Amino acid sequence: QVQLVESGGGLVQAGGSLRLSCAASGGTFSSYSMGWFRQAPGKERAFVAGISWTGGSARYADSVEGRFTMSRDNAKNTVYLQMNSLKPEDTAVYYCAGRPGALVIAPYDYWGQGTQVTVSS
C-alpha cells in the first residue's frame, strides 16, 4: 500500500513563496506519475500540477502556470511543489497524489492527507 505524506504548508503573505514536499513509501515510486491538487473552502478539489514518472514532463493548471514548479527526486521518493508569487486565491488544502503509469490530470489512485496553505493579503 502506497503512503503519501505532505509537508511544508503554512501561512505566508501574498507575493511570498512556499515549497511543499510529499514523501512516498510502500510502492515503486519511480514508476508513478505524481500530482498536486488543492481544495479551497466550498470548492471542489482541483488539479494543480503533475509530473511524469521520469520527471521529464510536467503539466500545470492555467491558474498556477509560471508561478508554481513541480519536481521530483526518485532517489528520495519525494516530489516537491515550489510555489512563488502566491496569491490569496491560492489558499487551500494541498494534496499529493500518485498513480502508476502515464501523467494525467485524473484519476489518481493514492492520496496524502493534505497540508494547509494560507496566503494573507
Strand composition percent: over 45%
Helix-strand pattern, N to C? EEEEEEEEEEE
Shape: globular
**Largest beta sheet, briefly?**
7 strands, mixed
The number of helices is 0
The Rg value, from CA coordinates, equals 13 Å
Low-pLDDT sequence parts:
none
Helix proportion range: under 10%
β-strand number: 11
Q: First CA to last CA: what distance?
A: 40 Å
Structural class: mainly beta
Q: Estimate the mean pLDDT confidence.
A: 96
Features:
121 residues, mainly beta, four-stranded antiparallel sheet
Structure overview:
This protein has no helices and 11 strands. The model has no long low-confidence stretch (mean pLDDT 96). Strands 2, 4, 5, 6, 9, 10 and 11 form a 7-stranded mixed β-sheet that branches. The chain has a 4-stranded antiparallel β-sheet with strand order 1-3-8-7, with no helix packed on it. A hairpin with a 6-residue loop joins strand 5 (46-51) and strand 6 (58-60). The chain is 0% helix and 52% strand. The protein has strands at residues 3-7, 10-13, 18-25, 32-39, 46-51, 58-60, 68-73, 78-83, 92-100, 110-111, 115-120. It is globular.
